[in-house]
Prior knowledge:
By secondary structure, this protein is of the alpha/beta class. The chain has helices spanning about 10-20, 30-40, 55-70, 95-100, 105-110, 160-165, 230-235; strands at about 40-45, 50, 80-85, 125-130, 145-155, 185-190, 200-205, 205-215, 225, 240-250.
Amino acid sequence: MRNWTKRLTLSAAAIAIAASAGTQAFAYISQEEELAMADNWIYEGGGSWAYRPAEREADAADSSESAAAPTEESEADVPEIAIYQYQVHSGDTLYKISRAFGLTVDELLAANSLQNPNRLTVGQMLDIPQAGTGFGGGTGGERPVVQRVLSSTLTAYTAGKESTGKTPSHPAYGITRSGSKAEEGRTVAVDPSIIPLGSTVLIEGIGLRKAEDTGSAIKGARIDVFMNDLKEAVEFGVKKNVKVFVLGDRSA
Protein backbone atom coordinates (compact mmCIF):
# COMPACT_ATOMS: atom_id res chain seq x y z
CA MET A 1 0.00 0.00 0.00
CA ARG A 2 1.33 3.40 -0.92
CA ASN A 3 1.66 6.11 1.69
CA TRP A 4 0.97 9.66 0.64
CA THR A 5 2.92 12.68 1.84
CA LYS A 6 0.95 15.72 2.88
CA ARG A 7 2.16 19.21 2.06
CA LEU A 8 1.51 21.65 4.86
CA THR A 9 1.82 25.42 4.72
CA LEU A 10 2.62 26.49 8.26
CA SER A 11 3.44 29.78 9.86
CA ALA A 12 6.87 30.18 11.43
CA ALA A 13 5.35 29.92 14.89
CA ALA A 14 3.51 26.73 14.04
CA ILE A 15 6.66 25.21 12.53
CA ALA A 16 8.57 25.85 15.74
CA ILE A 17 5.84 24.31 17.84
CA ALA A 18 5.52 21.29 15.56
CA ALA A 19 9.28 20.73 15.72
CA SER A 20 9.30 20.80 19.51
CA ALA A 21 6.09 18.87 20.03
CA GLY A 22 7.03 15.96 17.78
CA THR A 23 4.70 13.92 15.63
CA GLN A 24 1.72 14.66 17.86
CA ALA A 25 1.66 18.19 16.46
CA PHE A 26 0.43 16.94 13.06
CA ALA A 27 -3.22 16.28 12.28
CA TYR A 28 -4.51 13.00 10.92
CA ILE A 29 -5.11 12.83 7.16
CA SER A 30 -8.70 12.23 6.11
CA GLN A 31 -9.70 10.01 3.20
CA GLU A 32 -10.75 13.07 1.17
CA GLU A 33 -7.36 14.69 1.73
CA GLU A 34 -5.58 11.47 0.77
CA LEU A 35 -7.50 11.27 -2.52
CA ALA A 36 -6.78 14.93 -3.21
CA MET A 37 -3.07 14.39 -2.60
CA ALA A 38 -3.10 11.39 -4.95
CA ASP A 39 -3.96 13.82 -7.77
CA ASN A 40 -0.89 15.95 -7.01
CA TRP A 41 1.84 13.37 -6.34
CA ILE A 42 3.09 10.30 -8.21
CA TYR A 43 5.31 7.47 -6.98
CA GLU A 44 8.52 7.01 -8.96
CA GLY A 45 9.81 3.94 -7.12
CA GLY A 46 12.89 3.58 -4.95
CA GLY A 47 11.18 5.39 -2.10
CA SER A 48 10.99 8.73 -3.92
CA TRP A 49 8.02 10.90 -4.81
CA ALA A 50 7.65 13.56 -7.47
CA TYR A 51 5.22 16.40 -8.04
CA ARG A 52 3.46 16.17 -11.41
CA PRO A 53 4.96 18.60 -13.99
CA ALA A 54 1.49 19.65 -15.07
CA GLU A 55 0.73 20.65 -11.53
CA ARG A 56 3.96 22.66 -11.31
CA GLU A 57 2.93 24.60 -14.43
CA ALA A 58 -0.52 25.21 -12.98
CA ASP A 59 1.00 26.40 -9.72
CA ALA A 60 3.24 28.83 -11.58
CA ALA A 61 0.27 30.19 -13.55
CA ASP A 62 -1.82 30.61 -10.43
CA SER A 63 0.92 31.94 -8.15
CA SER A 64 -0.23 35.55 -8.43
CA GLU A 65 -3.82 34.59 -7.60
CA SER A 66 -2.84 32.37 -4.69
CA ALA A 67 -0.72 35.15 -3.25
CA ALA A 68 -3.69 37.52 -3.34
CA ALA A 69 -6.38 35.13 -2.10
CA PRO A 70 -5.76 32.43 0.55
CA THR A 71 -6.71 28.86 -0.36
CA GLU A 72 -8.27 26.20 1.83
CA GLU A 73 -4.81 25.06 2.93
CA SER A 74 -3.42 28.57 3.54
CA GLU A 75 -1.91 29.96 6.71
CA ALA A 76 -5.28 31.45 7.62
CA ASP A 77 -6.54 27.92 8.30
CA VAL A 78 -3.66 26.93 10.61
CA PRO A 79 -5.00 26.90 14.20
CA GLU A 80 -3.48 29.57 16.41
CA ILE A 81 -1.29 28.07 19.09
CA ALA A 82 -0.22 30.25 21.98
CA ILE A 83 2.82 29.45 24.09
CA TYR A 84 2.29 30.15 27.75
CA GLN A 85 4.87 29.85 30.46
CA TYR A 86 3.86 28.18 33.70
CA GLN A 87 5.65 29.08 36.90
CA VAL A 88 6.32 25.95 38.96
CA HIS A 89 5.08 25.99 42.55
CA SER A 90 5.89 23.83 45.54
CA GLY A 91 4.33 20.38 45.18
CA ASP A 92 3.99 20.57 41.39
CA THR A 93 4.79 17.56 39.24
CA LEU A 94 4.84 17.18 35.45
CA TYR A 95 1.79 14.94 35.69
CA LYS A 96 -0.14 17.48 37.77
CA ILE A 97 0.78 20.33 35.43
CA SER A 98 -0.08 18.34 32.31
CA ARG A 99 -3.53 17.50 33.70
CA ALA A 100 -4.17 21.16 34.52
CA PHE A 101 -3.49 22.22 30.94
CA GLY A 102 -5.11 19.24 29.23
CA LEU A 103 -1.78 17.93 27.91
CA THR A 104 0.16 14.70 28.28
CA VAL A 105 3.47 14.40 30.10
CA ASP A 106 5.12 13.53 26.78
CA GLU A 107 3.83 16.78 25.25
CA LEU A 108 5.31 18.75 28.13
CA LEU A 109 8.61 16.92 27.78
CA ALA A 110 8.64 17.63 24.03
CA ALA A 111 8.01 21.35 24.61
CA ASN A 112 10.73 21.68 27.26
CA SER A 113 14.34 20.52 27.44
CA LEU A 114 14.37 19.14 30.97
CA GLN A 115 17.59 17.66 32.33
CA ASN A 116 15.69 15.76 34.99
CA PRO A 117 11.92 15.51 34.34
CA ASN A 118 11.40 14.01 37.79
CA ARG A 119 12.77 17.07 39.57
CA LEU A 120 11.24 20.51 39.10
CA THR A 121 12.46 23.70 40.76
CA VAL A 122 10.13 26.16 42.45
CA GLY A 123 9.94 29.23 40.21
CA GLN A 124 11.03 27.30 37.12
CA MET A 125 9.29 28.32 33.87
CA LEU A 126 7.80 25.66 31.61
CA ASP A 127 6.59 26.25 28.06
CA ILE A 128 2.94 25.24 27.69
CA PRO A 129 1.55 25.04 24.12
CA GLN A 130 -2.17 25.79 24.05
CA ALA A 131 -4.49 25.87 21.01
CA GLY A 132 -7.73 27.77 20.79
CA THR A 133 -7.54 29.53 24.15
CA GLY A 134 -8.20 32.96 22.73
CA PHE A 135 -4.92 34.52 23.79
CA GLY A 136 -2.39 35.14 21.04
CA GLY A 137 0.57 36.44 23.00
CA GLY A 138 1.77 38.92 25.54
CA THR A 139 2.68 42.58 25.20
CA GLY A 140 5.75 42.98 23.02
CA GLY A 141 5.64 39.29 22.12
CA GLU A 142 6.37 38.12 25.67
CA ARG A 143 4.92 34.82 26.76
CA PRO A 144 2.31 35.20 29.50
CA VAL A 145 3.21 33.55 32.79
CA VAL A 146 0.48 31.26 34.14
CA GLN A 147 0.66 31.14 37.91
CA ARG A 148 -2.42 29.01 38.46
CA VAL A 149 -5.02 27.03 36.51
CA LEU A 150 -8.53 26.78 37.93
CA SER A 151 -11.70 24.93 37.05
CA SER A 152 -14.24 27.64 37.79
CA THR A 153 -17.97 28.23 37.96
CA LEU A 154 -19.00 31.42 36.17
CA THR A 155 -21.95 33.67 36.89
CA ALA A 156 -22.73 37.27 35.91
CA TYR A 157 -23.68 40.40 37.82
CA THR A 158 -24.54 44.06 37.28
CA ALA A 159 -24.01 47.26 39.25
CA GLY A 160 -27.73 47.35 40.08
CA LYS A 161 -29.63 46.67 43.28
CA GLU A 162 -30.39 43.07 42.27
CA SER A 163 -26.66 42.27 42.39
CA THR A 164 -25.03 44.79 44.73
CA GLY A 165 -27.93 46.22 46.74
CA LYS A 166 -27.03 49.71 45.51
CA THR A 167 -29.09 52.14 43.45
CA PRO A 168 -27.71 54.72 40.99
CA SER A 169 -28.03 57.38 43.69
CA HIS A 170 -25.63 55.51 45.98
CA PRO A 171 -22.16 57.13 46.05
CA ALA A 172 -20.49 53.73 45.60
CA TYR A 173 -22.76 52.62 42.75
CA GLY A 174 -20.71 50.80 40.11
CA ILE A 175 -17.50 51.09 42.14
CA THR A 176 -15.53 47.87 42.63
CA ARG A 177 -13.71 46.68 45.73
CA SER A 178 -10.42 47.77 44.15
CA GLY A 179 -11.78 51.32 43.74
CA SER A 180 -12.17 51.31 39.96
CA LYS A 181 -15.48 51.73 38.12
CA ALA A 182 -16.81 48.37 36.94
CA GLU A 183 -16.56 47.95 33.18
CA GLU A 184 -18.09 45.28 30.97
CA GLY A 185 -15.42 43.36 29.10
CA ARG A 186 -12.86 44.00 31.83
CA THR A 187 -14.19 43.56 35.38
CA VAL A 188 -14.77 40.28 37.21
CA ALA A 189 -15.45 39.60 40.88
CA VAL A 190 -13.33 36.94 42.57
CA ASP A 191 -12.45 35.43 45.92
CA PRO A 192 -9.19 37.29 46.70
CA SER A 193 -7.91 34.34 48.73
CA ILE A 194 -7.86 32.35 45.48
CA ILE A 195 -7.32 35.06 42.86
CA PRO A 196 -5.64 38.22 44.23
CA LEU A 197 -7.28 41.52 43.34
CA GLY A 198 -5.51 43.13 40.43
CA SER A 199 -4.74 39.81 38.76
CA THR A 200 -5.32 39.30 35.06
CA VAL A 201 -7.24 36.14 34.26
CA LEU A 202 -7.84 34.41 30.96
CA ILE A 203 -11.27 32.76 31.01
CA GLU A 204 -11.75 30.08 28.39
CA GLY A 205 -14.50 31.15 25.99
CA ILE A 206 -14.63 34.66 27.51
CA GLY A 207 -11.16 36.17 27.17
CA LEU A 208 -8.95 38.36 29.32
CA ARG A 209 -10.47 39.99 32.40
CA LYS A 210 -9.25 41.88 35.45
CA ALA A 211 -9.97 40.76 39.03
CA GLU A 212 -11.29 44.04 40.43
CA ASP A 213 -14.29 43.16 42.58
CA THR A 214 -15.50 40.79 45.28
CA GLY A 215 -18.88 39.50 46.39
CA SER A 216 -20.37 37.79 49.43
CA ALA A 217 -21.40 34.78 47.31
CA ILE A 218 -18.13 34.61 45.38
CA LYS A 219 -16.13 31.98 47.21
CA GLY A 220 -13.42 29.58 46.07
CA ALA A 221 -12.86 29.30 42.33
CA ARG A 222 -16.18 30.95 41.44
CA ILE A 223 -15.99 34.07 39.23
CA ASP A 224 -18.67 36.71 38.65
CA VAL A 225 -18.46 38.41 35.24
CA PHE A 226 -19.61 42.05 35.19
CA MET A 227 -22.25 43.06 32.63
CA ASN A 228 -24.13 46.30 32.06
CA ASP A 229 -27.46 44.76 31.10
CA LEU A 230 -29.50 42.78 33.66
CA LYS A 231 -31.22 40.67 31.01
CA GLU A 232 -27.87 39.61 29.55
CA ALA A 233 -26.56 38.79 33.01
CA VAL A 234 -29.58 36.58 33.73
CA GLU A 235 -29.28 34.86 30.34
CA PHE A 236 -25.60 34.20 31.02
CA GLY A 237 -26.70 31.78 33.72
CA VAL A 238 -24.27 29.45 35.46
CA LYS A 239 -21.37 27.93 33.56
CA LYS A 240 -19.51 25.15 35.33
CA ASN A 241 -16.07 23.63 34.88
CA VAL A 242 -14.66 26.56 32.90
CA LYS A 243 -10.87 26.64 32.67
CA VAL A 244 -9.34 29.84 34.01
CA PHE A 245 -5.68 30.84 33.73
CA VAL A 246 -4.43 33.21 36.43
CA LEU A 247 -1.68 35.26 34.80
CA GLY A 248 1.14 37.07 36.52
CA ASP A 249 4.30 38.98 35.73
CA ARG A 250 7.76 37.47 35.75
CA SER A 251 8.70 39.07 39.03
CA ALA A 252 5.76 37.53 40.90
